Each structure stands twice: as C-alpha cells, then as structure tokens.
Amino acid sequence: MSCSRREFLSATTVAAVSTFLAACSSGSDAATGPSNVNVTVTLANFAALNVVGGIAQVSSTGTPVAVVRSGASSYRAFSMVCPHQGTTIGITTSGFRCPNHGATFNANGAWTGGERTSGLFEFTVTSNTTAGTITITS
Ligand code: FES
C-alpha cells in the first residue's frame, strides 16, 4: 500500500498529537489527597466565612486547607496543594489560583483555566453547630 506525502504527514501529525495529549493527561495531575488531615476549625475565627461564598485558609500546618462557605450552614474543604505539580495555591475573590503555572479553580474546587489539571482534592467536613466548629478529615 502506498500513500501520498500529504496522507503520510497527516497521519503522522495525528499520531504525534495523540501521543502528546496522552502525555499531558497523565502524570502528577491526579487530585489525590493526604491521609493524615484532621483539623477542627472554630468558624468565628475566620471572618471570610461569615458570608456564603467566603473562602478562608484554615490550616497551613502540613497540608494547607481552605474552607468555602457553600451555604447558610454548609461548608466544603479543599486541599490547597495544586494537583498539577504541588505548589500551594492562593485564594481569589471567586476561588483559587496557582502562582506557579496559573491554573485556576472555582469555589467548588473544579479546574476552570490556566495550566490544565484536575480539580482540587476535597476533604470530608463534619459540622458541630452547637460548638460552632467544623472538623475536616481526609
Ligand atoms: S503547579 Fe499549579 S499550575 Fe503548575
């Protein structure tokens, strides 16, 4: 079987792009989390959490952890370790941004732009409304 130069270049380009995309979608981008996080947070200590949509970093010892107030009495907690290459991400007005390669994430932890990667690792949150605390565990 023979093929033209154009057919050959087209086929090899498709193969090269496929290999490139496969390489980009694997590796260190899995949003795996630490297994040793167990943090209890007094909500009144974080003014940003007074309003729905507020975000605060609540722990920087070991794995940095951010809490998002997702509703009147609901909270979500995310690892602030970038799933791309492990840089500590920062908080923005609407989510998070990695200073290393610019990946951005919304307040639900989903990747929204910049360096393509997975979403943020989410921890389990248990509320104690009587005590005004939440406990974050991995
Ligand atoms: S380490 Fe965060 S975008 Fe690369």
Number of strands: 10
Q: How do the helices and strands follow one another from N- to C-terminus?
A: HEEEEEEEEEE
Q: Portion of residues in helices?
A: 10-25%
Give the overall silhouette: globular
Can you describe this structure?
The chain is an alpha+beta fold and 138 residues long. The chain has a single domain, classed as Rieske Iron-sulfur Protein (3-layer Sandwich). 14% of the residues lie in helices and 33% in strands. The chain contains one helix and ten strands; from the N terminus they run αββββββββββ. The protein has one helix at residues 5-24, and strands at residues 38-42, 55-59, 65-71, 74-79, 90-91, 95-97, 104-106, 111-113, 122-128, 133-137. The strands form two sheets. Strands 1-10-9-4-3-2 form a six-stranded antiparallel beta sheet, with no helix packed on it. The longest helix has 20 residues, at 5-24. The chain is globular and about 40 Å long. The termini are far apart. Residues 12-27 have low confidence and may be disordered. The structure holds FE2/S2 (inorganic) cluster. FE2/S2 (inorganic) cluster (FES) is lined by residues 82, 84-85, 87, 98, 100-101, 103, 115.
Strand-helix topology:
Elements: H1 5-24, E1 38-42, E2 55-59, E3 65-71, E4 74-79, E5 90-91, E6 95-97, E7 104-106, E8 111-113, E9 122-128, E10 133-137
Antiparallel strand pairs: 1-10, 2-3, 3-4, 4-9, 5-6, 6-7, 7-8, 9-10
FE2/S2 (inorganic) cluster is lined by residues 82, 84-85, 87, 98, 100-101, 103, 115.
